[in-house]
Amino acid sequence: MNRMETAPNAFRATLLAAAIGAMPFVAAAQEACTTYNVQDGDTLGSIAQAAYGTFDYQNIFNANRDALAANPDALPAGLQLILPCDDGRLTADSELTAIIAAESDKQETKKKKNPLYEPPLKFVSANDWPPFTDSTMEGGGIMNRLAMTALQRAGNDREATLSWIDDWGSHLDVLLPSGAMDISSAWMMPDCTKLDLLGEFSTRRCTEFDRSLPVYEMAFSYITLNDNKYANVPNFADLEGARICRPTDWEREMLEVEGLVDPFITLVELPTLADCAQALADGEVDLYVDGTETALKLFAELGVSDRIAINPYLVQFPTFHFIVSKSNPRGRVYLAMINRGLTEMRESGEWYDIVASSLAEYNALNQ
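User: That's the sequence. What structure does it adopt?
Assistant: Structure tokens below.
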């Protein structure tokens, strides 16, 4: 995808250099808690399988975002990658939440009483999307933790409330346009230079809403049953006639930009990702399409992990954003505050710390 933020990350580069310098040699094999030199023929999936025993490579992407964001599908030989520890730490001797604590302490030191009352920003999110938005997780999941933290970084000092409305469609149809809520967390946003390829639902997010900088790039997988005729096809064009499941009112532009629309394919809409996973397990659809991390957990819960195939060729990295209605007169001001905070968090490494600690929490809950 070409919508990813590629700002330099001094912290990540410094940490990588320090990690390499501390080791007597660069790892020749893929092992967690090391660095690895990419070899000819490597893919993120093959590296993850060797290092972690799973094709879920989201954690590798998160730790090497600046090096991979421009082109995650083509790994040049010799590229050095950080392979995080199983619990998300970047090195064996690092502490996962140390940066969060340090940045929070600095914010408290700098905080000054503001004599002008400014009402809290009104965020709205929804459940059924762990570990990204979930009311049972710390801070409401990855996206909401990042949002609330961004409002306290880079000179920001703005409070916010977080409401949970589990009908995602209502965020766009009513809550943001009416001003009942200010910001929705969080949405995949289409490439608005390709309006001719997008459906009505995707086009609306270009024409009626403004977005923050990218908050998270998610590894999207195309998953079939092992014996399905669409398993491991090499091109999107080979999916003609497939039944592809997506939850109702969830984004589908990653399908649209590849021509995966009716009547070329049949889009099956079900209430939740769990319903789509069940439909695949039952043979009622051909493909489940969504983030690799969530998918692997759902299929493990269904007891069908050994029956699914993750396509190694059809890989996408869509970006997710906080969005505001263009009718909100202060919407762009709010996004500017969030963007400042996100940029500082990227540079300090706090972004990674929040993501990795949230994923560790999610994995612990699902063991």
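The longest strand covers residues 308-316.
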